[in-house]
Amino acid sequence: MANLYTHKDSNIRKTWLLLAVFFVFIIAIGWIFAQAYGSPEILYIAVGISLVMNILSYWYSDKVAIAMSGAKPVSREENQYLYRIVENLCITAGLPVPKLYIIQSPQINAFATGRNPQNAAIAVTTGSLEKLANEELEGVLAHELSHIGNRDILVSTVVVILAGVISILADMFLRMSMFGGSDRESRGGAIALIIGLVAAILAPIAAMLIQLAVSRKREYLADASGALLTRYPEGLANALEKISQDGTRLKHAHNATAHMYISNPFKGKEGYSWFARLFMTHPPLSDRIRVLRQMESSGALPE
Fold first, then answer.
1. pLDDT, the chain, mean
2. Mind telling me which residue stretches traverse the membrane in this protein (predicted)?
3. pLDDT tens-digit series, residues 4-23
4. Residue 2 banded pLDDT, cuts 50, 70, 90
């Protein structure tokens, strides 16, 4: 029978499987481009550029995310209620207390950021503080602390690096094919060149789909970890239910940071067809609520 532990373990395995597929995909794309254009240096250059760009973004991702969200720091004196909940959860989770921020927005939402637990931050909207009951807010904050404890920022950065490598490879190949010519055509390499062009067009799309799939799996993982932390899955389930019924908009929502929030900040843009799900940054809220309530009914929580 599925329980909190099996869901958590399952999503960890699926995440690493997707990362492994990503690595194999990069090697395959690099090999196709090398065969089509006779230039293996493309792969080495692309990897170097992408690594430098993404490592720099990793170190400053928390500051960028906070700035883009319009969040403001909050002190213990300004909001003892929020600090008390976070501190209690951190003691249970064995995590240092992150920096706390408030986003002035009526929408119920929150996100965590930071390269490691020692340099982490959590931002919550005023709507979350005003509209959620104590156990619901606790469930949301436990979900965000789980992102920190599960090193999701690190996983996301690795995925961004891999997606960046593929995108740069594809762009370099297309530019060289259009402007550089290819001496492989004279050696019967036209078919390989065509395959390379098709791969260059489709590879970034495939990379984005894998990136989104990893993001969705980490949301399920944070739900399960957060439920284990509070020992009350219904709290987070109820919070997600309120989020699904919340029709307000988040003023400072950006596509670049949408995947970081506990739910999609762009209300009304979620679709539920199989095709729409491929391009979603989050699993459908109805699916997450159903899974959490299945965990609750299974009676898997430790006494």
1. 80
2. 16-36, 42-60, 153-170, 190-210
3. 445 556 656 766 777 777 77
4. very low
Whether 135 is catalytic is no
Three-state secondary structure string covering 167-179:
HHHHHHHHHHHHH
Residues marked as binding?
143, 147, 219
Q: Which amino acid is at 66?
A: I
Beta strands 99-103 and 72-73 are antiparallel
Backbone angles phi, psi at 236, to 5 degrees: -70, -40
- Cα torsion through 272, 166, 161, 146, rounded to 10: 20
Q: Specify the pTM.
A: 0.78
Annotated binding site for Zn(2+): 143, 147, 219
In this predicted structure, the answer to whether residue 225 has a pLDDT above a threshold of 80 is yes
Which two structure tokens, joined as six digits, stand for 113?
A: 């950021």
- SS3 of 279, please? coil
Give the domain ranges of the chain.
Answer: 4-297
Residue 170: CB atoms within 10 Å: 23
- State mean pLDDT over 28-37: 74
- Amino acid occupying residue 257: T
Q: Which of 136, 138, 144, 241 is catalytic?
A: 144
Q: What is the pLDDT of residue 149?
A: 87
DSSP 250: -
Contact 292, 234 (CB under 8 A): yes
Q: What is the dihedral of CA 137, 143, 145, 148, to 10 degrees?
A: -150
Q: How far is CA 196 from CA 39, 45, 182, 207, 265, in A?
A: 12, 18, 12, 16, 37
Q: Please report the pLDDT score of residue 144 as a whole number.
A: 95
